[in-house]
Each structure stands twice: as C-alpha cells, then as structure tokens.
Design brief:
About 35% of the residues lie in helices and about 25% in strands. It is of the alpha+beta class. The chain is globular and about 75 Å long. The C terminus is likely disordered.
Length: about 200
Amino acid sequence: MESTLVNMVVVLVGVALIMGGILAYVNHITEGPIHEQSEKALADGIKAVMQSDALTVTANDTLVETIDGKECQFIVHKASDASGKELGAAVESTTLGFGGNLKVLVGFNPEGDILGYTLLEHAETPGLGAKADTWFQSDGKASIIGKNPSTPLTVSKDGGDVDAITASTITSRAFLKAINQAYNVYKQKGADAESGASKKVAVNQ
C-alpha cells in the first residue's frame, strides 16, 4: 500500500476499530465472572463481620443521607439465622480518607455492638493508613470489636478512647467516622428503610 496520508489514516482507523472490538469482547466475557467474584467477596465479607458462617440476608436496604452537605449512600444488609432470629446487620459505609474513599463493611448485633468489620475499598498509604484493615480488629492495637457507638467512637487525640494508627490520624478519624455513620444509619434508619436492592445476597451456602 502506498504510504500516503489518506492510507495512514485509514490504517490507524482500522486498527483502532479492531482494538476497540477486541476490548469490548474481552469486557463482555469478563463482566460476568468479575460480577460473580464481587458478589462472593461481599457475601464472604458479610459472614466475616457478622461472625457467622450460616446466615441469610433478609433485606438489602439502600439509604442516602446528607452528611456535611454531601449525599452519602449506605447499604444495610439485614441478617437472620436459620430459625429466623434477627442477628443484626452488616452496613456499608464510605467516608473520605487521607488518599481517597474509605469504604467499610461493619457488622452490628441487634443492640448495636460491633461484631466485626472489613475494608471494602481504600486508597490509604501502604504501611500507614492501610493498617486500618487490622489496627482496629479484636487482635489489633486499638480494638473496636464489642464497642457500641451510641457514644461516637473518637481517637484519643480528640478526647476519645481509641488509639489512632501511628502517623495516620486522618485515616483513623475517617475510619471511625465511617463506623459511627454506619451505626447511626443502622439504629435510626435501618429498621424503617425501604429496600432499594434488586436482589438479596446469598451467604448461607
């Protein structure tokens, strides 16, 4: 083919169309497995934070609250055991951390005590803010497991009784804010919320 401007443009457009088609095809065939993996990760997370391997999510309530002038979305996954007894709920809560969004899944029993938590998303500094994944666990350096945020949890620097992650006070504050917000939604709104989910998350497998 003669090397002309028109020919080069035609070749580049052709290559772009082919690559676009390949990418669209790859996206199509991987979309299903990625979605399934995401659903499994959430289901495993709910079991972990609710401290139960045999439970059923009875409702997935999506709630939008205005906090500090910004709309924030929460998802309350209500759970019960095989006999139908209410176990509490796992709540998805997001705040702004040091490096970006900090998304937490936290489990509460019916009284509002924290059963467990896991980080679903974060952009915190490795070795510093990223320690939130373990720092506040039952075997961590500042456990919040078993605490009830009816009195908001705050770091010791702000007059609270929770030790902040070393050199990561901003992340610690953001994490505890996410926990406190999750508690407020669970206790004040969760019981009366209208379900915004299109389907339930099956975790009793």
